[in-house]
Amino acid sequence: MDAPHPERALLAYLRNELAPDERARVDAHLAACAACRASLDAFAALVAGLAESAPAAPAPDWVRYAAEVRARVARPAPSRWWTERLAPLALAGALGAGLVLLALGVPTPPTAVPTARPARPLLAADTSSAVAARLGLLEQYPVIERLDLLENLDLIRDLDRVSTGDARQG
Amino acid sequence: MEPTDEALCRRVAAGDKTAFALLVARYQERAYRIAWSIVHSAEDARDLSQEAFVRLYRTAGSFRGQARFSTWFCRIIVNLCLDHRRRGRWWHRLVAGGAERGEDGASLVERQPAPPVDPLDVLARAQRMKQVWEAVAELPSRQRAALLLQVQEDLPTSEIAVVLNCSEATVRVHLHRALTTLRRVFEGR
């Protein structure tokens, strides 16, 4: 529903597009509101001016135009080769990268007070073998070939601190 | 008796190329004019309106007859043009230097229809309308499309709502905002 001034309905009013009850409401409002009558007159003049002075589109050669349309229609629809061919490759690449990251693991920050906690393998042996089995590609990377070394990475990284702790404790 | 647009569209969906040629003949001028009024480039209007016919040919089967064919086709054209404007073509504007020229080399201003040879007030009015049309070019895309469809193509608000895929109330808002902006230019405020 319009606000007190039915300005948004004025163009539809001019075009006689309003339903009878809405038109009656606008009529009643216009009879009492000079501002809306001024808007109505201004919009009418503006729309008439626009319609009269609309810039004309430069006409093309219509015979050639129609021939071009026929030629474009005759062309095969553009195939979506990039979605059909590249998307699976991209997906496989992303999956491979994800698995490599998983295999390498994200190094955990060293704890402030190292204790003689058991070394936590970054990758369980069954997981690493499953990864290796599924991705022969990984075998090409020397680091990945020695996945067993990575299992003790936490221990190796914290070796000096573990030693100190052990010394204190001892 | 001439076949209706809707009947021709159904024949196009069945692969009838003659029906398609008839629709192209009926609508090519209108399609081009609508495209040109939105993108203001002869080359782009030609390309976009032709693309609209290609879409029509390939998707005629999706026309369900819920709206008139002209409204449905107009929606294809306007959507293509609005997408085109959204993409920007900044490099095109840069090369054109803001004074786009048509195939005949005439600038937008030069392509304004010549005012009737007459008194000074007519000249003043023509000058004012030139400023108004410049302001039309600056309107937001959907306001501009709604205005042009109503003023130039004489589409009723209900059909513009179908073309722009919005409610009639929204079309009224677009039109009111566009006219309010243009009124300020028209009245020299």
Sketch the major β-sheet of chain B. none
Structural class estimated from helices and strands of chain A: mainly alpha
> Which outline of chain A best applies?
elongated
- Would you count the extended β strands of chain B for me? 0
Distance between the first and last residues' Cα of chain B = 53 Å
Mean pLDDT of chain A: 70
In N-to-C order, the SSE pattern of chain B is: HHHHHHHHH
Radius of gyration of chain B: 18 Å
Oligomeric grouping of the chains: heterodimer
| Interface with most residues | A-B, 35 and 53 residues
Structural class of chain B: mainly alpha
Return Rg of chain A in Å: 38 Å
Structure in words:
The complex is a heterodimer of chains A (170) and B (189). Chain A has 170 residues and is mainly α. Helix content of chain A is 64%, strand content 0%. Chain A is elongated and about 80 Å long. Chain A starts with 9 loop residues before the first helix and ends with a helix. Chain B has 189 residues and is mainly α. Chain B has helices spanning 5-13, 17-39, 42-59, 69-87, 90-96, 120-138, 141-151, 157-164, 168-186. In chain B, helix 6 packs across helix 9 (168-186). The longest helix of chain B has 23 residues, at 17-39. Chain A binds chain B through residues 7-12, 15, 17, 39, 42-43, 45-47, 49-60, 62, 65-66, 68-70, 72-73, 77, and chain B through 20-21, 24-25, 28-29, 32-33, 36-37, 42, 45-46, 50-51, 53-54, 57-58, 102-104, 106, 108, 111-113, 125-126, 128-130, 132-133, 136, 147, 150-152, 156-158, 169, 172-173, 175-176, 179-180, 182-183, 186-187.
